[in-house]
Design goal:
It contains 7 helices and 2 strands; from the N terminus they run ααααααββα. With 126 residues, it is mainly alpha-helical. The protein folds into 2 domains: 59 residues, Orthogonal Bundle (434 Repressor (Amino-terminal Domain)); 55 residues. It has a two-stranded antiparallel ribbon with strand order 1-2. Strand 1 and strand 2 form a beta hairpin. Helix 2 crosses helix 3. The radius of gyration is 16 Å and the shape is globular.
Length: 126
């Protein structure tokens, strides 16, 4: 799962494996082994990757539902994704793999936004 999510993020950022490797200070073959799920990066590299792409470690590891999420949060996000994920883009029909990648990215963004909103509400109540 980690490698799959890393590959989605890298491709969405239009980076080659070599470019990403240079940005975080590892070899291109190391990025390739992560994306093939042959190796898992150490915690320092995991943090660098999460910070670079602006996602949580939970997202990278496929833990899509944060521990703080309520059942209603899950339902709200599921509904938003089902209502908003396009089935084609610029005249190109998306296949199941494309839709799964889009789903993972949208979920990550939405969880980050929901977490920020909840933190704001908690700060306002203090």
């Amino acid at each position: 799962m980690f490698g799959d999510n890393l590959k989605v993020l890298r491709k969405a950022s239009k980076l080659t494996q070599e470019q990403l490797a240079n940005k975080i200070g590892v070899a291109k073959t190391t990025i390739a082994s992560y994306e093939q799920n042959a190796r898992t990066p150490d915690p320092t590299i995991q943090s660098k990757l999460a910070d670079y792409f602006g996602v949580s470690l939970d997202y990278l590891h496929g833990r899509e539902v944060p521990s703080w999420a309520t059942d209603q949060d899950v339902l709200d996000i599921e509904k938003a994704i089902k209502d908003n994920v396009p089935m084609n883009y610029d005249g190109i029909e998306l296949d199941e793999e494309d839709r799964a990648q889009i789903d993972r990215v949208i979920r990550a963004v939405m969880w980050e936004k929901l977490e920020a909103r909840k933190k704001e509400k908690n700060d306002e109540q203090k």
